[in-house]
Amino acid sequence: MRGLIPLLAFLALIVLLAVSILRGNSDQLSYKFLNEPFPEFELTELYDETRSVDQALIRGEITLVNIFGTWCTPCKAEHPKLVEIGETENLRLVGLNWRDTRDRAKSWLAQLGDPYDFVIYDRMGELVIAMGATGAPETYVIDAQGIIRYKHVGMVTDQVWAETLQPLIRQLESE
User: d(Cα 137, Cα 116) in Å, to the nearest integer?
Assistant: First the structure.
């Protein structure tokens, strides 16, 4: 009987972890940068390492910022949806390439299609950390004033787009 106690404690821990994961969307509710300005940064553009960019890139129109990496399997799975959004929506789509080499990221986008209007290169994760990101993929809706209005953790799927991101973008467009 004494030998079962550690096993039962371990199983209880697994159940609690599973419930926490399956709840989803808790990051959206607790995201501390919601309704705050997009963080200040100075990085370079993926395709031109001499071109410096900063937070002014994010202001002026509603922008979807998508954190991705070639090492990220869910990023590859969500990519066709981002390509579709880039082709069908009148929306600025900014990629934030994280923890990659430039050559690998450029090759990946050339092979899969580049849906982004602009790609920020963040090899060391400076901006990713400043944004409070926890991994990839993550997608942020930024209003025209440069305010973070929503954070989505995980893949942008048809359902996420139709039920969450697109309605929020339409709402921001009408404001």
Answer: 15
